[in-house]
């Protein structure tokens, strides 16, 4: 690709089908700047490639979730592993935001603007977590990472409503449940730097889930579906296993969940 392109889908293609990390971060940031300067073009110029062609860097080595070593957060080694796992989540989140842009065409410009803003925030989160990782002498790729995060993208590659149900409204929403306890843990350890970074990420992630809920409802309505019913049906068919709790109900409501959806999820808890 001509890296000077101002076409959203060509930039998305470059970010998804090249593994280079530094280039991905800088292209994501320049695409957001083009958006802010109203210089971004939204014309669909090339056909959508298969999700199977998505290209990840050579490192980290990707392992099945059950093969990932478990470490306690009480050691430096455990904290380093925690930040490495988080860096991987943020890194895959950059791909997830680009992929929802790239794969689903013909949507309103506001849809693409929202997900590009999210891609740029994920790139910032990744860079911030890499700073935390540096405190432990590590860089992203030094440890193995969980291969499962991308499976949800592959499963929902041809179904926008399922993608929105599973990625922002299930995976990212789970982050809203568990992050406050992590922040608390680093507060107890007196690690102000990590507290600040995790708090910043938590606040942004509420917005990501909220945008997920907004576009989920929009797309359900476009198809004449009841959004609560559609959410339940899609979760049952696309989410393997039961949801994990407890839920951060207060924050999930801010992020666009209905009490009805939360009640239904709670009835199905592990
Ligand atoms: Fe993030
Ligand atoms: Fe996110």
| Uncertain runs | none
Quaternary organisation = single chain
Rg calc: 18 Å
Count up the helices. Answer: 10
Number of strands: 2
Shape call: globular
Mind explaining what this structure looks like?
By secondary structure, the protein is mainly α. It has a domain at 146-270. Helices cover 63% and strands 1% of the residues. Strands 1-2 form a two-stranded parallel ribbon. It is globular and about 50 Å long. The mean pLDDT is 94. The structure holds fe (ii) ion (2 copies). One fe (ii) ion is lined by residues 93, 122, 172, 205, 208.
What's the layout of helices and strands?
Elements: H1 8-16, H2 21-36, E1 62-63, H3 76-103, H4 109-134, E2 145-146, H5 151-155, H6 160-188, H7 192-222, H8 227-238, H9 249-254, H10 259-267
Parallel strand pairs: 1-2
The site of one fe (ii) ion (FE2) has 6 residues, from helix 3, helix 4 and helix 7.
């Amino acid at each position: 690709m001509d890296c000077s392109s101002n076409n959203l889908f060509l930039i998305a293609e470059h970010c998804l089908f090249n593994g280079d990390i530094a280039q991905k971060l800088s292209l994501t940031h320049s695409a957001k700047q083009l958006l802010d300067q109203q210089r971004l073009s939204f014309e669909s110029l090339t056909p959508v490639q298969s999700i199977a062609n998505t290209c990840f860097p050579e490192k980290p080595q990707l392992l099945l979730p059950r093969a990932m070593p478990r470490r306690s957060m009480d050691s430096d080694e455990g904290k380093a592993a925690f930040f490495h796992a988080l860096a991987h989540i943020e890194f895959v989140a950059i791909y997830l935001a680009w992929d929802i842009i790239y794969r689903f065409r013909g949507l309103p410009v506001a849809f693409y603007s929202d997900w590009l803003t999210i891609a740029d925030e994920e790139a910032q989160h990744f860079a911030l977590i890499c700073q935390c990782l540096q405190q432990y002498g590590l860089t992203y790729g030094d440890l193995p990472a969980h291969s499962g995060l991308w499976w949800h993208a592959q499963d929902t590659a041809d179904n926008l409503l399922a993608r929105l149900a599973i990625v922002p409204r299930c995976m990212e929403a789970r982050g809203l449940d568990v992050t406050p306890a992590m922040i608390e843990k680093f507060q107890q350890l007196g690690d102000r730097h990590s507290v600040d970074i995790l708090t910043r990420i938590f606040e942004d992630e509420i917005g990501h889930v909220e945008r997920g809920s907004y576009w989920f409802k929009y797309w359900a309505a476009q198809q004449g579906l009841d959004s609560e019913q559609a959410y339940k049906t899609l979760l049952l068919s696309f989410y393997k296993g039961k949801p994990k709790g407890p839920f951060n109900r207060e924050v999930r409501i801010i992020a666009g969940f209905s009490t009805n959806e939360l009640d239904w999820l709670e009835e199905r808890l592990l």
